[in-house]
Amino acid sequence: MGGISGLNAIPDIFIEKLDNFVLVAIPLYILMGEIVFRSGMGGELYTAANKFTRGIPGGLAVGTVVASAVFGAMCGVSVAGAATIGSAAIPEMLKRGYSKRLAAGSVAAAGALSLLIPPSIGFILYGAVADASVGALFTAGIVPGIILSAMMMLYIIAAAYINPNIAPKTDKSAPKDKLKSLMKSWPAVILIITVLGSIYFGIATPTESAAIGSLGAFLISIFILKKMNIKLFIEILYASTKTTGMILLIFANAMLFGYLLTRLQIPQQMANYVANLHIAHSAILFAVTILLIFLGMFLDGASVILIATPILLPIITTLGYSKIWFGVIMMITVEMAVITPPVGLNLYVIKSVSPPSIQLSDIVSGALPFVFVELAAIFLFMLFPHIILWLPALR
């Protein structure tokens, strides 16, 4: 392929790669996330989580992780989760005397859980590139998402226990207040059960569940929350279209890049080279992880997934590892990408929703410990890959 004939192949590649039913889920999940983001469901989630985690060391920050994890199960978009929870959580933590670093860092890191906890836009992109089942990827992300959330909470509790000055203890909420806040967040719980339950029990495909979730979020915002109006609906459509266009444009160009790599036999040659190396598989996995983290420092998450997958996946499968397993590992490294400078999107999102007293340096230094928590999670899943694979095996 070369010259004019090579240029003529570009539109054919774009059309072929974008003509994929799975990709329909991307605008639908983005639409659902925008509705959830702008309707106030995220704020109610934080309030409920806050009520239940008061009284333990770092309780407000722990509640932030819980709320972000639940929000991720509704949204799938990291930036939306960080902005929604951050706008409510950071002022509350600062008012209670929490350190600026812990307040901002915990929200930035926890907001990234949307990339791992299904439904995740990252899993949809990876599934399309890797030719892997998106439903299996969604199912595989549930247990690691819960484990990583728990590890983040344990870090916060330990840090607050060792140094109480960074997170002054708050009084426990009364049972009546807990019940009241829980009742206010029930629409979000129903939405999560509907979306994930329809996938796990085989009622709907991930794409169909995205349509169900978008419709459900829209109806909830109209009839239960009574937040929807024409002006807001137009804003939601505009934001959803803008984000979808950006992601699909990156996807189309990344597919062209992958096509060129395949025609040049680069991934296959790299896989064969690695297969003939007489070094431990763990050393190769470590090198792949470091490479993904490095790429994430300079590229957005979607670009990392779309550019790195065609190159690295043949190496991983040559070593005998599952596409589904590697998809989860990649999502965790992409989580690191959104909280590591210089191109950590969540860092800048948190800066935009934080009070002026919080500097970007506070957010970066506060998010850095969570990068090591995520690294520990990766090593755990490398040592025990069945943690990721056992739930998809039950489907």
Describe, in plain words, how this protein is organized in 3D.
The longest helix is centred in the middle third of the chain and has 34 residues, at 230-263. The model has no long low-confidence stretch (mean pLDDT 87). This protein has 395 residues and is an all-alpha fold. It has one domain (3-393). 78% of the residues lie in helices and 0% in strands. The chain has 19 helices and no strands.
Mean pLDDT: 87
The secondary-structure element order is HHHHHHHHHHHHHHHHHHH
Unreliable segments (pLDDT under 50, ≥5 consecutive)? Answer: none
Classification by helices and strands: mainly alpha
Separation of termini? 42 Å
How many DSSP helices? 19
Oligomer: single chain
Largest sheet: none
How many domains, in number, for the residues?
Answer: 1
Rg over C-alpha atoms, rounded to the nearest angstrom: 21 Å
Q: How many strands appear in the DSSP assignment?
A: 0
Helical amount among residues, as a percent range?
over 70%
> Which outline best applies?
globular
Strand content: under 5%
Features:
mainly alpha, globular, 395 residues, single chain
Short account of what is shown:
This protein is mostly helical. It has 19 helices and no strands.
Topology:
Blueprint: H1 3-18, H2 25-39, H3 41-53, H4 59-72, H5 78-95, H6 100-111, H7 121-130, H8 134-162, H9 175-184, H10 186-200, H11 206-224, H12 230-263, H13 266-275, H14 281-298, H15 301-318, H16 323-337, H17 345-353, H18 360-383, H19 386-393
Helix pairs in contact: 1-12, 2-5, 2-11, 2-12, 3-4, 3-5, 3-9, 4-5, 4-6, 4-8, 5-6, 5-17, 6-17, 6-18, 7-15, 7-16, 8-16, 8-18, 8-19, 10-11, 12-15, 13-15, 14-15, 14-16, 15-16, 16-18, 17-18
